[in-house]
Amino acid sequence: MQQKLILYSVLVSFFIINPVTHAIQARSDKEQPQTGVSGTAVQSVVPVQTQSASSQQQQAGSSNTASASSVSSTFNPLGPNVMCSFLPRDFLECKEPIDHRNNATARQEKGYGCLRFGGSAYEDVEHTKVQCTVYTDIDCYGARTFFRDGVPCVRYTDHYFVTTLIYSMLLGFLGMDRFCLGQTGTAVGKLLTMGGVGVWWIIDVILLITNNLLPEDGSNWNPYV
Ligand SMILES: *[C@@H]1O[C@H](CO)[C@@H](O)[C@H](O)[C@H]1NC(C)=O
């Protein structure tokens, strides 16, 4: 009785599993030709697309030359060329803002430039204009060298806030944070007093977090970590 039961169950399971495996095989067999078909379909489609694209380009090129020959003197706002001064910063090579080192007369003479660098809040940062030139291979309309306004008077000299904060917390008793910021005088004092017997150590961490301990050279924290 038991043997019959086992035989029966084996037979049933075989009949159940066999079609399933066949189905899986069939599906996997089916899938391969399908991908092959789609691949060939893509291959057959792509040249058509490129052909149409190239013909479009040719059309665009012919219309481009036509418009360039017919309308060369006046700016056509619907035309393909953008005003050079409207181009985003990616297409321009801009000079660094001029540093007048707090010399107001020099700034007045020049008409632009920065008296002071640095600051965190937008209102605290001076803004000035800089001279920008469009890269040679970029096509645009108008003067290729112009002034762009609203450039912030900030600079970065590889000072990172998080790194300095970690230095301040772990090696503050050696004055390591202040050495890294370039404040050598106070750093030596901090080192000799072992971080002001712990008090200065804590105070400098608080100063860092509240943005009152900054790089000595007036640069900003590097935003690119
Ligand atoms: C400020 O700039 C003017 C013009 O460049 C210069 O003559 C003058 O000596 C400068 N003053 C200082 C204090 O550097």
Automatic annotation (TrEMBL):
Cleavable signal peptide: 1-23
Keywords: Glycoprotein, Membrane, Signal, Transmembrane, Transmembrane helix
Location in the cell: Membrane
GO cellular component term of the entry, any: membrane
Record field: transmembrane: 160-179, 191-214
Domain annotation TM2: ranges: 158-206
Pfam families in UniProt: TM2
Membrane-topology annotation of the record: Multi-pass membrane protein
Segments for region (Disordered): 48-72
Main location: membrane
Record-stated family: Belongs to the TM2 family.
Name this polypeptide is given: TM2 domain-containing protein CG11103
Recorded name of the encoding gene: LOC117577926
